């Protein structure tokens, strides 16, 4: 089975292109696949550092990818979806066909539209409500009695992120229902795990394997749907009643469900209007809204509190948070924009602890596709750049293996008051040299919401809690 999978993947790459991680040994292709699975970051970086940094690729759980030079990043980002498709790569990577199903929802534009139009527009306007959830969640997890506690970093912060995201997605009442919050978080995690499992098998076997691999997905989504469907059904009733009679005694909440139901009134297909399909859209929204944000928060906490000069870093971040909060009185959008040091510490954490080793992944959709160097690439190939290679390249970053929390804020702070900042690199600013949120047309549309929440969670941790530094790492250390 492994041999069949390895051999069929050769059809997706140009003949003669070297395989990163493949050696002259027994079962070379299979063992290269295993290395791609367990050492993907190292292989991406190895390919990046080859002479000329051109056209090497490796194999991992998701099949082969042609790794192109970082200079081709803008070129990739500018090519239309009908030639190089980003969404196909994302869906195939997580095996959405099996792990999620519902092609009628995945192919629909409603979630993307509402994220770009409504969620981005309202980011920063609901911070009072978000802080309420952060404070209540952290107090319930960490306590408020001044006693030291040992808590799991990932589990506790995932719970907090789940509540914070759900406050905006589904409103105050449901976001405090921990059965719902944990089912949403567990669903997001189960989708990723089942996607990995399915990639271990050839394509023809996945339909049979998927029923077993996705059992946790169905269980967790079922729990979430149990809570979502009555809420959305009632929201539809109330919104229709209010539209028909302005004196109807009900105030419309500002949350994703309201935006989604309002948009559904403009549509006419069952998968855009039914309670079931609208509810499942919220389940899918949690996959993107909770998983990556949780990982970013957790990595930032681990990087900040384990840095070689953690005590000094924490003092500097806390001083900044105290000054900004005193000036503004609350965590408004304007106040968060002044947390330059904290923003830099998170951005730097995302650089050294980025999720995945590649970026700008695109699926070739046409038969005759040629790269700028003249290399013909078969249809259904995947191309992209080495994010790890770029993030740890001395041409782009001074001493790139060091976690320098103020790398991005230092130029701003060193600028004289009469001058404009030398750079404008904050957490939501993407570039071909910083790719955790991708770049270009397909840069993550939810990054503004995620950055807003990550900064508020960390600011509250700094202001309200003493966290003992973790085992510190030496300064010259690659965190991944």
From TrEMBL:
Positions binding heme in this chain are: 444
Q: Which GO terms describe its molecular function?
A: heme binding; iron ion binding; monooxygenase activity; oxidoreductase activity, acting on paired donors, with incorporation or reduction of molecular oxygen
Would I find Signal among this entry's keywords? no
Q: Which cofactor does it need?
A: heme
Sorted alphabetically, the keyword list is:
Heme, Iron, Metal-binding, Monooxygenase, Oxidoreductase
Q: Which domain of life is it from?
A: Eukaryota
PANTHER family in the record: CYTOCHROME P450 (PTHR46206), P450, PUTATIVE (EUROFUNG)-RELATED (PTHR46206:SF1)
Similarity comment: Belongs to the cytochrome P450 family.
Spell out the protein name for this chain.
Answer: Cytochrome P450
